[in-house]
Each structure stands twice: as structure tokens, then as C-alpha cells.
Amino acid sequence: MKNIWTIASRDFKSYFTSPIAYILIAGFLAIMGWMFFFNLSYFNMQNMQALQMNLGKGVSITDGIIRPLYGNMNVIFLFLVPFITMRLLAEERKNSTIQLLLTAPVSLAEIILGKFLSSFLLVLVMLALTATYPAVLFLFGNPDPGPILMSYLGTALLVGCYLAFGLLFSAMTENQIVAGALTFAFGLFFWLINWAAQSVGSTWGDILNYLSLINHYNNFSQGVLNSTDIIYYLSFIGLGLFLTHRVLDSFRWR
Hints:
This protein has 254 residues and is mainly α. It has twelve helices and no strands.
């Protein structure tokens, strides 16, 4: 565990020794801040119209703000994760420091987990900085905390899937741009894979819906904790880390 944390802390600090982390965090918060302001304004307008037309309670905070806000957050991470993961192992290969890393007194599993943890910590920092949005909602309203907490958990697990396979593609090439492009294409494919579910048979449709990353997030956005969704995300992450282990193992014996 000590070796994992040493690798993770070294790589995590390296994000902040270059402009990468600052640019990503600033851009992420700027986009999320605009989306939160837009969703809040639109939510207020909808409820004002509902009151004027005597339509009842109007739109709930969960449906009007929380679900669209965190749903859009997952789309933003789809674009940002390639910039987070593309350098993790590709840079080591390009600088020829991968041989030193592989011959160090640490196991491949510790290297992979350390690299993954460093990128995951950066994502957690970005998520923590968005806690001001639910704080504002609690300050001026009475939102349901369940969907908020579950949305954060679902987002962390979903982004973990991106990170695991981003690490895999970073291990496969020394070109960071190629690694980033493959990560984005892979994430987009498993985001949209369920679009074809309606044009195939019921069996294949069920399979495609199950493989869809976003389908498993829907329960979290409603405040529902389903073990099937957690197992899916953890299995997806585990598969990505396992394949990364196989790639590095083959590289070590070349």
C-alpha cells in the first residue's frame, strides 16, 4: 500500500507542476458554473410560470437542477479525462523512464494502481470543488440529498471507467495524442452503444443496454443505489486495470 501511495502522490503532484491541472480545473469549473447558473435560472422561470398558471408545484429541484447538472458533468468528463490519463504511462515510455519504473522494487499491480489513483484523486478534487452548487441549493431551498449524494457516487464510478481505460491506452503507446484520442473514442462508444438497441433483437438490445455506461448512471441520478450498477462499474474498472497489467507485462519481457 505504501508503494501505491508513493507512486500516486508523485504523479498527483506532477499534475500541478505543469499547467495541466490548473487549466483542466479552471475550464471544468467555468463550464459547470455556467451550467449551474443556467439550470437554476431555467428552474426558477419554470416554477414562476407554473405558479402564474396554477399548475401546482412545478418542477422539483431534483428534476430541474440536479439531474441535468450532474448528467452534463459526465459529458464534460468524457472530454476532460483523455487529458488527465494520456500522459500517465505514455510519457514514461517516451522519456524511456518506463524501464526504470518496471525494474524498481514495486510490482506491476502497485504501479498500475498508483497511476490510476493519482488520476482518480485529481477527479475527486474537481468533484469536491463543485460542492458549492448543492450548498447553494440547501441554503436557499430544500433539495433531496439522496440524488445529490448518489449523483456524486455515480459520477465517480463512471469517470473511474474512463480513467481505467485511459490508463490502458496510455500504456499502449508513447504518443500522448493517440492515447487521448483512443480514450475519448472508447468512452464515447460505450456512452452511445445503447443507441443501436432499438434496431436489433431483444436479446442483443438487452446486451447493448447493459453495456452502456450512461444507462447504469440513471439509477444514481434518481437517488437509487443498485448493486448491479456498482458491480458493472467496478468490473469495468477492473477489466481496464487488468488489461493494462497485461500490456505492461508484455512490454517488460520484450
